[in-house]
Amino acid sequence: MLVSATPLAGSSSYWAQGGVAAALAADDAPERHLRDTVVAGRGAVRESAARVLCNEAPGIVRDLAALGVRFDADRWGRLALGLEGGHSARRVVHAGGSATGRRVTRQLSALVAEHPSIDVQEGRRCVGIAVLDGRCAGILLDDGRRVAAAAVVLATGGAAALWARTTNPAGATGGGLLLAHAAGAALADLELVQFHPTAVAAPNGVDGFLITEAIRGEGALLLDASGERFVDELAPRDEVARAIQELMTGTGATSVALDMREVDPALFPNVVGALRQAGIDPGRELVPVAPAAHYMMGGIATDLDGRSTVRSLYAVGECACTGLHGANRLASNSLSECFVFGARAARAALAEPAVGADGLGGAEGPRRPPPLTAASRRALWEHAGIERDRDGLWSLRDDPHPLVRLIADAALARTESRGAHRRRDFPDLDPAFEGLHVMMEPSGRPAFDRWV
To answer: Most exposed: 81, 279, 409, 443, by fewest CB within 10 Å?
Structure first.
């Protein structure tokens, strides 16, 4: 059974402009991809997870092509590989330019909908995880049904829409994380959220619209008010976002300029089309951009097969935390992660012993969190944005939303600056935190763990 609150093509992955990162070029190799991932992750990458991703991603691209996903190719029929921030080689496979998520999601959704062995429940919501004798035994649906299952795999996306300024659809508020946490699963690295450097900053219907860094890979420049470059456009995202934020803070500006005028608009038709629809012609004028909350590196703590700390409960994609991304995600590793660890979790889940429906009726009912308010989103942006400090984070511990409180506790525990986590009161990287992950257990305070 596949339960989806929205139509299958309405997931966050549908909006992914980046591609699938995989070492496919003749002059590239998984070890080189691994090095780039580790460097971008700022000393917090779980190397075993990164090695799995880099070794298995090329096979995933071939699998997707065999399933009918048409990736962009050059005039000789070879895969067109893009260059994005933090990568030392062209290794990002796109479909439809910056419409990769749309193309992949549409194709796989069609296959799932037609499959006779998959019961698709669109418009239904999972409101609770049934746990019996310490094991996940099924789910509770919003229509009152209780569905027994040998295994449950959460693929519910991230939580970056908790922040007031975000590139994410409105539903990306960490619902899967709260379901897992209520069921007894540990969460990890909640303080590590990536702020994308180039989200449109304009009150004309496209505010927060993501402009993929693949456009910077094709030559777009970031300019200050005097038209001068001020940052390496292809540095890892934490560096670029921080440089933009510092420039804005120092000058009082609300945005910087992205110069796309030398980029072929045919390479990125959906980005160019959206901008033109909003009255911005990127071929003739500069695009105002500023950072926005984009991607959660943290999530439900899992092993390399997607297992959470609750038996038979799995998590994959942005709701999971394998430690792969460390403190700063390397561009386009996210879609690769979905497919690599999704496949591994599927194989592991299929090996779980069957569970009977007997007794499932006695499983604990759902505990609905309070609704997310605009005040909580503003508070999170102000106190747990690109820069944080103890006083601001401490104030979030009284927020009515449980995930906001968990994020604050995790950020308070990491008394250093590393990657996307920047503390004004602890501005330096602390070697003592190297390789450590902040764990949030359901009934305890934050604790540090070192994963292998």
So the answer is: 443
